[in-house]
């Protein structure tokens, strides 16, 4: 169907509907007068609704106009208490933006060492087992050391011979040259160094714990041939746990070393462990736009393990803004606003939403603590209109402040 045909058909339907409303709906004439249509036009369009056969119609119409004018004047004057709109309100409170940060991190022992032998050889003895607590300097295992024992003995003999020769040359200085005496002293010092080297090689046949810690699973057995690249065991000092986690870039200038943190482990649901930020990375990761932090958490009860995942949270002072109920925020062509009740009148206050939370919305606006904001009855509220606050709202506000 062509457009002009559709337009004509729509116009006919609208005119027919209007005519039906005029002739079949009582009071249609009064409605048109209230809309500002002149009475001369209304009397021609809706003669039946004017009751022209009734001699008293003009007087009744005059009374109706007087009532309408009185009601209009009453509305312009704000109306009486019975005409005021019943609304529910909620007081403005102060809210803090970005007051809490949550992140996921991974825990690690404060010190962890994979112990490897300092020399190659065959394991002769293993002196620890998984779960043992060891001290720094404790022997964990030993390697075969027969060759080293022989080498130390030989070095010991060489030292004794060098000492005897040196002492002899000192006693007969008049019979030998000074060069011979000097050579004997050098030979003695060299023999002593050889002895120290032999003792060092022998000592390295013992695999020593470098730190205090707890022994992990021992992956070797007696008789295994090991080298300096094969770990014998892993030691973890988990008296404290380090948790690495990443925070968004906007917190880069907010976090600092020493700030308190709280952490919860998946293995210990509901149990909160306290700690503090130990280190802050010196750069933002370009790929994820996050900053790496490291927190230190006490573990005196030995409940935590390296490798655990943690939910880490931090609290910040944050910026304070007025907080209002989410349902009170309305929108129009100019943006967001709320209705404020002041002296039993409603006033539109423009707001800028800063942060949305489940229970309230933080806004930037000319509002202060205790200001009444309409939360119910919003559909009928108008600028400067008379309103009255529900008694339930006042009671709830009084309870909330107690």
Structure classification: alpha+beta
Fourth-tier CATH superfamily name of the largest domain: Efflux pump adaptor protein, beta barrel domain
Major pleated sheet? 6 strands, mixed
Number of helices: 7
Strand content: 35-45%
One letter per element, helices H and strands E, the order comes to HHHHEEEEEEHHEEEEEEEEEEEEEEEEH
Name its key features:
single chain, 402 residues, alpha+beta, conserved putative lor/sdh protein from methanococcus maripaludis s2 fold, Elongation Factor Tu (Ef-tu), domain 3, 4 domains, 6-stranded mixed sheet, 6-stranded antiparallel barrel, 7 helices, rod-shaped, disordered C terminus
Summarize the entry for a quick read.
The protein is 30% helix and 35% strand.
Give a structural overview:
The chain is α+β, with helices and mostly antiparallel strands. The protein has four domains: 75 residues, no CATH class; 98 residues, conserved putative lor/sdh protein from methanococcus maripaludis s2 fold (Beta Barrel), CATH 2.40.420; 146 residues, Efflux pump adaptor protein, beta barrel domain (Elongation Factor Tu (Ef-tu), domain 3); 60 residues, Helix Hairpins (Orthogonal Bundle). Helix content is 30%, strand content 35%. The protein is built from seven helices and 22 strands. The strands form four sheets. Strands 1, 16, 17, 18, 21 and 22 form a six-stranded mixed beta sheet that branches. A hairpin with a 2-residue loop joins strand 16 and strand 17. Helix 5 runs antiparallel to helix 6. The radius of gyration is 47 Å and the shape is rod-shaped. The relative contact order is 0.15.
